[in-house]
Amino acid sequence: MKIIISTLIFVFTLLSVCYSQSGWITQNGNTANELRDVQFVNAQTGWAVGFYGTIRKTTNGGLNWITQNTPATQEGFVCCYFSNDQTGWIGGGNQTLNYSYIYKTTNGGANWTNQYNSSSSGLIMKMWFSGLLNGWAAGAGGKIMATTDGGQTWVQQNTGITTDLTTIFFVNTNSGWAAGGAGVMLRTTNGGSVWSPFYSGTTQDLEGMHFISSLTGWAVGYNGVILKTTDGGMNWSAKPSGTTKWLNSVCFVNYNTGWVSGGEYYTANSGQILKTTNGGDNWNTQSVPSISWLADVHMINTDIGWAVGRNGSVLKTLNGGLAAPSAPYLVFPSNNAINVPVNTTFRWTLVDNAQRYTIQISTLPNFAVITDSITVDTNIYNIPNGKLNNSLTYFWRVNAENSYGDGPWSTVWQFSTTTVGINPISSNVPSTFKVYDAYPNPFNPSTRIKFDVPKSASIRILIYDMTGRQVDNLFEGNVSAGTFETVWKADKFNSGIYLIKFIANDFSMAKKLMLVK
Fold it and tell me: Are residues 50 and 153 in the same domain?
């Protein structure tokens, strides 16, 4: 257990609502002091406490945090617990001077009464209450204090250890757990009359604990440790967190959904929040604003919650910390693909946290005109017949969406659909328009003509006789850049001299053909 009361180097003010692509937004906690615990009794009313006697209260969901009168200005408040919007307790002390205290309010924090004060023991680190009367407080030196009268009297319970206890949790007046330094773990089934040690499976310091029932709970600590039990703490299994940072707090709202907060204490902008949706078997790092180490996370349901930490940091989420998804990567049709069927299947990569995807297709790279736009719940779209035309160049893009909002668009790719009358033979981009000599020439009954297109263009390929009369139309439409070939089948024409004329934008060229039968 490492509790550091550090000298503040700088002070900064957080914007009350600073929206970003993160699912967590910053709030102005009205302090630069380190905040160590946060608790809400409903979606509007909550408290955050911290060093140097800091107490902050909000009655509008954290939009504004007001300063409450503090009973101790120089000491550190490390924990708080509120049973309702009027009754609550705060605990802490001074580690250097080795004393501890507990204060209680019955009027929402307007006034505080000292209930426990010891000059011979270290900090009160965590408190938990079962109702208004039964409560427990854990702290330095293996100390657990208990009350059965709402804190009027506190009695020290026998834990049998001297290791610092940093966290405590009860699911009712009988069943509770405590944990702390070097992976120590205790359990009681009779309200703390007897505390029994259990092997946690780790020697790392444990800092946070949460139980969702008398059997299922989690503990977190140093070096990214996350443990889970499904038998009331008899056995603990390690779960991969994906981090080696100091994890200080854990909060679950049901058997599947939970959050962990922490970070690197001395490293700026290292605050971290993890989330699980499968009971802790897997954890995903959530996107948070640039923030320092986060001491505590408290969720009141699957969507709404807060986290607090160093430098007065306060974060709030309205969607369970879900961030707007990142941009997908396009897969098929590949960029600059040619001869793509008009009923092709579009594919792109799946994106974490995405609930649906929107694909847009246009004949213009700025998507000023939309050929097709649809929202789907997977990363595949089978475009129906009639949406795309042959011999055209199209542009396409995809973005991902969830309940937080829309993510950015992907890069824009282009493709050309199947041509009718011409065949693409190379997608290399030529430098200029060019029409090659026909082969064979003279010919009977067909000949091939190859031509280069340096950029997307509308082209026409026409056949004229020697009187200047158009006798055939080999192709007319849009093509992308590349090299193409067309075939003139002259079975129905008489022997003679003909001209094939290629027309594209401001370019035109004619070649002489000799049909010999």
Answer: yes
